[in-house]
Amino acid sequence: xxxxxxxxxxxxxNDRYIKSLAPLVAxxxxxxxxxxxxxxxxxxARIAKMRQEVQNGRPLxxxxxxxxxxxxxxxxxxxxxxxxxxxxxxGITLHQGKIAEMxxxxxxxxxxxxxxxxxxxxxxxxxxxxxxxxxxRRDAAWMGKLYEYLGLTVGVIVHGLSDQERQQAYGxxxxxxxxxxxxxxxxxxxxxxxxxxxxxxxxxxxxxxxVDSILIDEARTPLIISGPAEESTALxxxxxxxxxSLKLDTHFTLDEKGKSVLISEEGVxxxxxxxGVENLYDPANVSLQHHVLQxxxxxxxxxxxxxxxxKEGQVVIVDEFTxxxxxxxxxxxxxxxxxxxxxGVKVEAENQTLASIxxxxxxxxxEKLSGMTGTADTEAVEFKQIYDLEVISIPTHRNMVRKDFPxxxxxxxxxxxxxxxxxxxxxxxxxxxxLVGTVSIEKSELxxxxxxxxxxxxxxxxxxxxxxxxxxxxxxGHKGRVTIATxxxxxxxxxxxxxxxxxxxxxxxxGTERHESRRIDNxxxxxxxxxxxxxxxxxxxxxxxxxxRLFGSDRIAGIMDKLGMEEGEAIENRMVTKAIxxxxxxxxxxxxxxRKQLLEYDNVMNQQREVIYSLRREVMVxxxxxxxxxxxxxxxxxxxxxxxxxxxxxxxxxxLEATAARIEEMFTVRAEIKTGDDSEKEAVRQAVAAQLETxxxxxxxxxxxxxxxxxxxxxxxxxxxxxxxxxHLRDGIGLRGYGQKxxxxxYKREGxxxxxxxxxxxxxxxxxxxxxxxxxxxxxxxxxxHKQEPAGEVQYSGGSDTGERKKQPKxxxxxxVGPNDPCPCGSGKKYKKCCxx
Length: 837
Description:
Elements lengths: L1 H9 L2 H8 L1 H14 L4 H16 L4 H20 L5 H11 L3 E3 L6 H4 L1 H8 L5 E5 L2 H17 L4 E4 L5 H9 L2 E5 H11 L15 E5 L1 H5 L7 E6 L5 H9 L9 E4 L4 E4 L1 H11 L10 H15 L7 E4 L2 E4 L17 H9 L7 E7 L1 H5 L4 E6 L6 H8 L3 E3 L9 E2 L3 E3 L2 H18 L3 E5 L2 H14 L4 E3 L7 H6 L7 E5 L20 E5 L6 H8 L9 E8 L3 H6 L1 H11 L10 H48 L3 H22 L6 H15 L10 H22 L3 H31 L9 H29 L1 E6 L2 H6 L4 E6 L6 H4 L31
Parallel strand pairs: 1-12, 1-13, 2-4, 2-5, 3-4, 5-12, 14-20, 15-20, 16-18, 16-19, 17-18, 19-20
Antiparallel strand pairs: 6-11, 7-8, 9-10, 21-22
């Protein structure tokens, strides 16, 4: 109660923050008269001067009023749009590293130009991140006119660019692109071999458009770069054939909320009978058990045209939040292969993780992060806890006049869709445009079929027609238009009302069911009522909707029975609406827990990732890899001699022999170990150094590139294997809970042990490889015919731990550097025309 009284007297924190910006907004307004007389050249000169001042140490905050005034004036000239005062408030909020919640149609795209130009003065680059390639291209071209007017450069990162094109785009002052492209470029950069191949600069400042979609909705899906594993795919089709013989509630049960399957005792016996095995849970049959579970999930928990579609012989995932296709993404742990077997398309090989990162950890690497969206307030706690981002609600330029009608609730899906078709037909007859929001492709096509029977012309916008998305959405506000769209289709595209529509009540939003998240419902509603336009919205629900069935409990059904509902009859009831909202809150809390748990596990991997990527970058850019190698040799020798040091002079002859044998195996150096003292260790170190010096002299100017190659190859190969080990550890760690142990703590502890082992293995394998490299010359036939010049070749002689390499001498473990080969420096030129010259 005290909080409520204080809020009434002092205003909320949001109100006080908005009020505190008033003097700054006034100062920007006062400067307007002084920038209006400036021509383009004078404006560009002023921007260039301020850029120099910032790079000399002047704080951006001091320049904010003048830069914002320049951007406002440049926008009038280049775009014909002048920033409103509330848009200036939004721009300041973004610059200060917060989330600006702005209603649909309030001009978020234009707002972003203010902090973008200000932060571009640092010369470190500004990233503006959008949800799809279309919006990235559109906004870069549209707002690019303003940036170029002020003398700034703009780049766009979209799918299909070459490394050279990406370098150019990232090198610009301002770079637009999608969250996926930015994240994958970060991972790919940490798999490159030469610093000249890197595309990204250090992560400076990012503005995330539709921040709730990217940082909340997509946070449950990590970015993964994978390569094909060697396991056969034949078992998926074999198991798929037996799935229909397993009966629900007899052989297995489903948990639809958690999307998991539990096989009963009868089910285990049935599988053992069909597959001809004695014990399905025998460790030797763990793969069979896994395939059966994934097959059951594919058949009973994942629906075609809801969770995925089949397009051109491939299973393509549909984003559950946006309704958009996600080509290139695959479900993990064999689920995607199980779906391919179910649909009768080619079963692709399983993949092994080569690099991965969550969006949470990628975006937290930026020096400064901000975001904008129409709906963030319901997730304010998560934004603060995970990203340390405060949500600020920005006032609208004009008052919102949209009417949000109470939900209509029906007993069954059939009744609900019949009523929707009837109401849409009536609205169409009246001429009022309607945007119908559905939660899946299947539902959008079902409703489309009903409207066809009613003779109502309409457009269907779902993942199957995403190419036409912006065009269809832009026309959705015209008189008589009926548009059916999956959840957030067309997000980021303004729906402008056509002629005469204002008098008809504006755009009407019709939701066919409630989403798991209130925020997604609010996004759909927000498509109407932009910038003071009239509009209306209403949701139609049924007792057998997924949300009601899974989370609404029997309480709602009980209320309906008491109200005496008849078939086909609808009711409006605040108690039911409240119960539905409570169900949504429970789902939101459940999803937050999933994201939080994913982050807690990934934080372990993130610490390891930072160490490995930092080490990798050091190897890649260092001009003196010799110093790094010397340090590694020292550490390896300490580890080899440590057992002798701990025995304090009382040496077992077998231990001395074992140490000598290990030294020979690791470094190919014969050493007589009698005491294991520091002098013997130093003698071994000098012998190894002499061996590497011989290599350095023989390789000449190529030595550093050869050393860098083996260091990076060892790091990448062992990191890949470590990721697989961590995946296996993660898969089984939940079972530790049965032993009264905290799975997360166990994961941290065992993950740390594995990581220590990884670091040693990387150093060990790198030094072993270098100690086995021999330089010899050979005369290539093609060279003999022309110049008769000897060509250098690096020969890898193998070792006891890498027997497999002897069988594959032409792998990249044995690179050749001949006159006509690509130069090792990464320039792309032939060696004879580059470094050799």
